[in-house]
């Protein structure tokens, strides 16, 4: 029997698929990484709120260049932090990467974790509503 066919992919690789972009291994966030990123997401949310950018505007940004620029300005100072925490390097190292490499890595990070964020925050809000209605 062919040895390659016989060898099974480890369960962790199926559950947590790695991607390698220009030598950078990217995996979906661990819980520790997610906790480390929460202050960054809070900072982003505060900037968006101060700027008057609502969540619905994110979907509309594709059609409105001024809203797209607002989102890019909000994300720009935080992107290096998100990449650094996500791939386990320093922010200074990320800032030294070529722009196209950093952008590709950032896109993969958000693609891998978008559903997790959406599901996590949706579940969290639902749980808070349940807790507050049953506690009173």
Features:
two-stranded antiparallel sheet; 2 strands; globular; 136 residues; mainly alpha
Mean pLDDT level: 76
Task: Note the run of SSEs as H and E.
Answer: HHEEHHHHH
For the secondary structure, the number of strands is 2
Largest sheet: 2 strands, antiparallel
Dominant shape: globular
Strand order of the largest sheet: 1-2
Unreliable residue stretches: none
Main structural class:
mainly alpha
Terminus-to-terminus distance: 65 Å
Number of domains: 1
Helicity range of the residues?
Answer: over 70%
Strand content: under 5%
**Helical region count?**
7
Rg result: 18 Å
Task: Kindly summarize this structure in a few lines.
The chain is mainly α.
Could you characterize the architecture of this molecule?
The chain has one domain. Strand 1 and strand 2 form a beta hairpin. The longest helix is centred in the C-terminal third of the chain and has 37 residues. The chain contains 7 helices and 2 strands, in the order ααββααααα. It is globular. The protein has 136 residues and is mostly helical. The mean pLDDT is 76.
